[in-house]
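Hey team,

Filing this mostly as a record. A colleague (T.K.) asked me to run one chain through the structure pipeline before their review meeting, and I want the input and output archived in the tracker in case anyone asks later how it was produced. No errors, nothing strange. Just documentation.

Input sequence:
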Amino acid sequence: MSVCLAISSFRNDETVLALLEEALEDLAPFAEILIVDSMGTGALPAAIAARGWSEQVFYESSEHNLGSAGNLARRLEWAAERDHRWVFAMNHDARVDHDVVRALVECGETVDRVGAVFPMRFKQGRQMYDLTGRQALPLPFRGSKERPTEAQYDVHWGSSNGTLYALEPVREGLSPWAELWMGWEDLGYGWLLERHGYRQVVLTDVEMEDPYEYVQKGPVTITDKPSWYAYYQARNLVLVTRWNLQPPIYWATVAGRLGLEVCLTVALRPDKRTRLNYLAHGLFDGLRGRAGKWMVP
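Output structure:
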C-alpha cells in the first residue's frame, strides 16, 4: 500500500515550500515526497536541506521546461522506479489533505485493475461539481450544483491535479505522453488507461476545490488561458485522439469542440487574431503528427 506524494513545480518555490510544510505536519500516509521541477532556481533543494527534510523529500530538476505533460509523466515514472504502489499527483496550486489521500487509497484497494482514483472535484470558477469525465467524448464542461448521490462512479478520464494514480500501468509501459508538453495530457492518459482495461473511479465522499482558471463574460463562463495555450489546445486534442486510435465519432466531436473554441474566440476572447492563428497552427500540426514544445510561450 506504499504511496508517495509527487508535486510539480515551475518557478513556484515559495508555494511548494508551503505545501511541504503542510505535508510534513504528518507524513503518513506518504512513504516519501517527490518534487519534479523545471529549470529550478536552486532555492527548493537548498531549503529542503536546510530544514532537515532530505530523508523524506527528494528533489529533481530538469534543465528544460517539461511542461505539465512532461512533468506528470516524469513524476509517475519516478514513483514507479521507487517501487511505490500509488502516487498522489498534485500541482503547486493544490492542497495537501491527508484524509483525502487515505480515502482515495482505501477506495483504490477495493477496485480491480484500477488506474486512477479521483476526488469529487468542485470547480471554484464555475461553482459546480465537475462531471465532465463521465463523458467518453471530449465534449465541453459538464457540471452539477449538486454532488452525485452514488458513493463512487467510473469515468473515462480526469484532471491529474489531486489524483491518486496506480503505478502498475506505468510499470507496464503506460505513461502520460510527455511530448504533448501541455494540454490534454489528462484526457490522453485517461483514454490510454481505458484502452488497456484499467478502471478510473471518482470517490464522491471526498472533495477537492479546483482553482482552474475561469473568467465570466456576461452570462457565459469560459476558461481563462493565455493566447499561446490555444495552439496546444488544438494540436494536443488532435494528437491524443490519433494516438488512442479513436473512432470517427470522436473525430466529429473534436471538430465540433474546436469549432466551438473558434466561436468563443471571435465572440468573447481578447487577442482574437493571435488566438485564431494559434488554433489554426495547432490543428495543422496535430494532423501532421507534430509534438513537443512549439515556439510559444
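Quick notes for T.K.: DSSP finds nine helices and twelve strands in the chain. The chain has a mean pLDDT of 96.
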